[in-house]
Amino acid sequence: MVAKGLTFALPKGRILEQVIPLLRAANIDIESALAGAGRKLTLDIEGGHRLLLVKPTDVPTYVDYGVADVGIAGRDTLEEQGRDLYEPVDLGIAPCRLAVAEPVDSSIALRRGTRVRVATKYPNLAQRHYASKGIAAEIIPLYGSVELGALTSLADQIVDLVESGETLRQNGLVEVETVLNVTSRLVIHPPSLKLRPAVSELIEAIRGAVHARKASVA
Fold first, then answer.
1. Under a CB-based contact definition with an 8 Å cutoff, are residues 158 and 144 in contact?
2. What pLDDT digit, counting tens, does each position of 96-110 carry?
3. Do 128 and 56 reside in the same domain of the chain?
4. How far is CA 7 from CA 62, 81, 103, 109, 182, in A?
5. CA distance 119 to 104
6. Are the C-beta atoms of residues 125 and 131 closer than 8 Å to each other?
7. Do 114 and 173 fall into the same domain?
8. Is residue 163 located within the same domain as residue 108?
9. Do 109 and 43 belong to one domain?
10. Are residues 101 and 158 in the same domain?
């Protein structure tokens, strides 16, 4: 059993449901606390732990600053922000991909030296991707429906998360390249790993749960 007193920063939304059984493997029950949470953003968990419910993109910030010992964040967010966090376990949940897409009827022949306008929520990842190909990309940050950037000719291409691709299809866009395959990761505040034995216990329990899940579907 994991010792008392850890603080978890977990993403609100669909990923949270997939996290519940993984934490249960470490004898950490967040389900009962969530059941009566309402709109609360901080919850006390059985066993003396604390849960912070935050936006997915904010998880690394809370862990980086030591407000939380442990968090769960997508590879896309972690690589975009580039924070110095320990990532001991790929949980394999919420799989998707960061992809380049463009309008079906206006395909661009990209080659070294080409200039292109790109709308994205991931300016750092997008900039690195195009720079690696020698393409001069003007990055246009958008934080709503990125697809609209291409539909209105604000941008030639977009870089965004894709799961099934249905949103792209319904809006006349086509996926042309994968930038990054994405799953959610367990992230740890480095000093917590050194100073709190409970963190190492948690890592091993969750790693075991992930391995068991993979074995059951193999």
1. no
2. 999 999 999 887 777
3. no
4. 10, 21, 44, 49, 25
5. 16
6. no
7. yes
8. yes
9. no
10. yes
Scan for tokens 């590879």, then name that residue.
75
CA distance 84 to 174: 35
| pTM beyond 0.85 | yes
Nearest to 185 by CA among 79, 113, 54, 46: 79
Closest CA to 159 of 125, 109, 116: 125
Which structural domain range is residue 198 located in? Answer: 7-94+183-217
> Which tokens is 181 given?
């395959």
Residue labelled with tokens 């894709």 = 162
pLDDT tens sequence across 62-89: 999 999 999 999 999 999 999 999 999 9
The DSSP bridge partners found for residue 138 are 117
- Is residue 183 classed exposed, middle or buried when 0-12, 13-18 and 19+ CB atoms within 10 A define those classes? middle
The tokens for 126 are 């997008």
30: helix, strand or coil: coil
